[in-house]
């Protein structure tokens, strides 16, 4: 791991996810976003150096009682009462599945996947 203050991959691997560092304005508010569709996650990969390889984290997410949303709500800061997560389902505004949690303890990095963008 590197020590760069802008390498979020290494920061997450060292200390896990931190919802306080998530930005507002995302489709389902300020939360930690994951997806079971790796091609969707790949669209969020930011390369900090020229390489034919990319890195992605596979995570374990404790979704608990997840509520399905088909329409975005960028004002969210938590799941609605009685729920622990939001499951964004493909439909209006979404092309791929998303699972959003709002508590740091609901998600942990589990595997680091390095892949070749040319294959
Ligand atoms: Zn790094």
From TrEMBL:
Domain of life, source organism: Eukaryota
GO CC terms in record: nucleus
GO molecular function, one term: NAD+ poly-ADP-ribosyltransferase activity
Protein name as it appears in the record: Poly [ADP-ribose] polymerase
Catalytic activity, EC: 2.4.2.-
Annotated PARP catalytic domain residues: 1-119
InterPro entries linked to this entry: ARTD-AVP, Poly(ADP-ribose)pol_cat_dom
Organism, scientific name: Tulasnella calospora MUT 4182
Alphabetical keyword list: Glycosyltransferase, NAD, Transferase
Keyword Zinc in record: no
Record carries keyword Membrane: no
PANTHER family per record: POLY [ADP-RIBOSE] POLYMERASE
